[in-house]
Amino acid sequence: MDGFLLQACQAARERVASSSSHRSLAAVRTAAAARVPAPSFSAALASPGVSVIAEVKRASPSRGPLAPITDVGGLVAAYQAGGAAAVSVLTEPQWFRGSLGDLARAGAASDLPLLRKDFIVDPYQVFEARAAGAAAVLLILAALSDDQADELLGVVAEAGLDALLEVHDPVEARRAVGAAARADTKRHAVIGVNARDLGTLEVDPDRFGTVVDALGDRESGPRVLTVAESGVRGPEDVSRLGALGADAVLVGESVVKAADPAAAVATLVAAGLPAAAQGAPAQGAA
After folding, report:
1. Domain presence at residue 219
2. Where in the sequence is the domain holding 228, given as residue range(s)?
3. Quick check: 41 and 162 in contact, CB under 8 A?
4. Which residue in 22, 39, 85, 274 could disulfide with 49, CB within 3.0 to 4.6 Å?
5. What is the pLDDT of residues 227-238, one digit of tens each?
6. CATH number at residue 238
7. What is the spatial distance between Cα 210 and Cα 141, in angstroms, rounded to a whole number?
8. What is the pLDDT of residues 90-116, one digit of tens each?
9. Of 94, 48, 45, which is closest to residue 250 (Cα–Cα)?
10. What's the whole-model pTM score?
11. Cross-strand partners of 87
């Protein structure tokens, strides 16, 4: 693992140790099981065109503070009004200034499927995510061995969630396809290509195009849904990534900093509509 990812995963393990000393895995598993079934994250991304996952993101290690976000519920409601298919919530506290409280507040304000975006390294975090209202969790392949990924995917399935398998290069992409096939959850596999290098934190706008071919023939066998992550700033990026095969884009900074988040999301949604629907109002947009 690169230096930043190594630090982030170690910090995540320390948080798990602290949390589990106050609330046992059995208690978190019970709380997760008591939740009503989560809406399907993968099904929300499977519609024609390019879906938009809008993110609740207070800060980042590369940009520092982004937005104070005093009203998570209001922000998520704006995302839904703009036509977002799903919402990503950063829950990592040290570098992204997020929390599980943000995830719970997002769920109280919207019925969209929620992605817990964090450094998931332990089954405890998966059940913790479900208990807080998540429909999916992020699994970063660079941080996990194949055995660890298989274990966590099994826990994800047990918790009734989806996983967004994040990759950064063709080798990780092939690992993700293999892990999804072994999991055999009967759901669409969701694989995200992160254009941000976790070592340098720089964004490579060409990364999606260079990695997506390693996913193989996505029209045969189990359906793989692809998500383009990082560096999506405007409608031209959505159109470009859609042409390269993205089923969805995950957008954080450009919508969280927008004066009108609903309008910002609606603009991205419109750019991702199938050609036959271009010019029609985005679902949920005013």
Report:
1. yes
2. 3-275
3. yes
4. 274
5. 999 999 999 999
6. 3.20.20.70
7. 17
8. 999 999 999 999 999 999 999 999 999
9. 45
10. 0.93
11. 54, 114
